[in-house]
């Protein structure tokens, strides 16, 4: 029976993970286990979510089928349980039995700062998951969505501070004559980290609305960070090695559970991920970037999300009317997605300036009346922009194009990080 076979697979992988003396191998084994558990749980819990009223209509399908929503919370809970189970593995060398065997380590050398960073990262992600699920249930307004990640990031920022967190940043070569080689940002660095958490969580939530796009972009970003981490494992820089191992410990289980969710959320989706997953994914990436000290690198991997945020800004800040849902719409005759539009009945002077600038750059499609007066414009999202440029597309095609853009952005990011960075910094690891 498939269920018995699956049970044997899970047991075997769990045994391998739990008997491994290498924390990275244990993390890898637990990640596979977490992915399989998530893959099994999602279809089993779907009917329960439907009965609880956690459901939504797939607006991009004929008939608008009703699907379980907020399944990202299942993914997040499995992830958090996995991370809690994993806690002892990085510190196994300090266990009493191992202490007597090795003789070199003692409880006085226990890395409490490392444990604190690990626990604060888990707590920060847990807080964000709870707040994200609350958003799915209570439908919190956008203005409060900026506050939630800030609150959730407090445990991470506090531990960063008490652990002697560095607030110095390296000054690019052209500006060292003015500021020196290092500049201490002090409290402004903590504000920057809090803003990074806000951006990472909300940027994934903004680039959403079609099957698979939220999980797909998160998987590509996380995989890119993992590849970046692996580049440091053979190096002699011990602090860099430790921080990138920390990143791997958090991201490998994340990729495992996200991949399982992606299978169920890919076109045609059988479940919706909800805002919970967007917050969970964004905060996980923010945690590894902050605690791993590579916040600039993580922003490179977010290039499509940065573009989408800047492009969406006139609507997000209401210079141009912003409807509640800006996702593409289904053309029932073609069975393809088309760009959605917003009316231009009321538009500020600044909004008109944005329209003119975007039109000059070829970033919008404006419809005018017989007198040439703008009456409506496509919603400012990357998804709608692609549909304006490429014409109507099947949902699967649209998501695939977004994934191509995300992969291309990662390749460009690696080139910038390891080739172009030498132009403005004298040392590039």
UniProtKB/TrEMBL annotation:
EC number annotated for this UniProt entry: 2.7.8.15
Keywords assigned by UniProt?
Endoplasmic reticulum, Glycosyltransferase, Magnesium, Membrane, Metal-binding, Transferase, Transmembrane, Transmembrane helix
EC supergroup of this enzyme: transferase
Q: Which coenzymes or cofactors are required? A: Mg(2+)
**Cellular localisation:** Endoplasmic reticulum membrane
Q: Kindly tell me the pathway this chain contributes to.
A: Protein modification; protein glycosylation
> What stretches pass through the bilayer?
71-92, 112-134, 146-167, 187-208, 215-233, 245-264, 276-294, 300-320, 398-416
Q: What single Pfam family name could you report for this chain, choosing any that match?
A: Glycos_transf_4
Keyword Endoplasmic reticulum found: yes
Which CDD domains does the entry link to?
GT_GPT_euk
Q: Which reaction does it catalyse?
A: a di-trans,poly-cis-dolichyl phosphate + UDP-N-acetyl-alpha-D-glucosamine = an N-acetyl-alpha-D-glucosaminyl-diphospho-di-trans,poly-cis-dolichol + UMP
GO CC: one term?
endoplasmic reticulum membrane
According to its UniProt entry, one GO biological process term is:
dolichol-linked oligosaccharide biosynthetic process
Q: What does this protein do?
A: UDP-N-acetylglucosamine--dolichyl-phosphate N-acetylglucosaminephosphotransferase that operates in the biosynthetic pathway of dolichol-linked oligosaccharides, the glycan precursors employed in protein asparagine (N)-glycosylation. The assembly of dolichol-linked oligosaccharides begins on the cytosolic side of the endoplasmic reticulum membrane and finishes in its lumen. The sequential addition of sugars to dolichol pyrophosphate produces dolichol-linked oligosaccharides containing fourteen sugars, including two GlcNAcs, nine mannoses and three glucoses.
Family assignment from sequence similarity: Belongs to the glycosyltransferase 4 family.
Descriptive protein name: UDP-N-acetylglucosamine--dolichyl-phosphate N-acetylglucosaminephosphotransferase
């Amino acid at each position: 029976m498939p269920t018995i076979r699956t049970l044997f697979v899970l047991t075997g992988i769990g045994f391998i993970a739990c008997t491994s003396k290498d924390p990275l191998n244990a993390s890898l084994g637990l990640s596979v286990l977490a992915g399989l558990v998530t893959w099994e749980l999602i279809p089993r819990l779907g009917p329960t979510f439907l009965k609880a009223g956690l459901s939504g209509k797939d607006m991009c399908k004929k008939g608008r089928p009703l699907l379980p929503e907020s399944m990202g919370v299942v993914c997040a809970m499995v992830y958090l349980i996995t991370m809690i189970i994993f806690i002892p593995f990085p510190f196994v060398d300090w266990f009493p039995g191992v202490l007597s065997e090795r003789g070199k380590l003692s409880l006085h050398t226990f890395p409490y700062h490392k444990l604190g960073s690990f626990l604060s990262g888990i707590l920060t992600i847990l807080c964000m998951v709870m707040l994200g699920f609350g958003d799915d249930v209570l439908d919190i307004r956008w203005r409060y969505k900026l506050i939630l990640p800030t609150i959730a990031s407090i445990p991470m920022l506090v531990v960063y501070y008490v652990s002697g967190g560095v607030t110095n940043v390296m000054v690019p070569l052209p500006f060292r004559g003015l500021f020196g080689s290092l500049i201490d940002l002090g409290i402004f660095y903590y504000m920057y980290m809090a803003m990074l958490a806000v951006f990472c969580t909300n940027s994934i939530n903004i680039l959403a609305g079609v099957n698979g796009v939220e999980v797909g972009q998160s998987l590509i970003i996380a995989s890119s960070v993992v590849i970046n981490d692996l580049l440091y494992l053979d190096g002699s820089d011990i602090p860099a090695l430790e921080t990138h191992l920390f990143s791997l410990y958090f991201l490998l289980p994340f990729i495992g559970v996200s991949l399982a969710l992606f299978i169920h959320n890919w076109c045609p989706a059988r479940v919706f991920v909800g805002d919970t997953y967007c917050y969970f994914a964004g905060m996980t990436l923010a945690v590894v970037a902050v605690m791993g000290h590579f916040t600039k690198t993580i922003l490179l991997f977010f290039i499509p999300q940065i573009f989408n945020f800047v492009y969406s800004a006139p609507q997000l800040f209401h210079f141009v009317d912003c409807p509640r849902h800006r996702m593409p719409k289904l053309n029932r005759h073609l069975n393809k997605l088309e760009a959605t539009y917003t009316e231009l009945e009321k538009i500020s002077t600044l909004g008109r300036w944005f329209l003119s600038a975007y039109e000059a750059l070829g970033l919008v499609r404006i419809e005018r009346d017989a007198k040439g007066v703008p009456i409506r414009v496509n919603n400012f999202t990357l998804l709608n922009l692609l549909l304006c440029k490429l014409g109507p597309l099947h949902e699967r095609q649209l998501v695939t194009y977004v994934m191509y853009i995300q992969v291309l952005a990662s390749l460009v990011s690696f080139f910038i990080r390891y080739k172009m960075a030498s132009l403005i910094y004298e040392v590039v690891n």
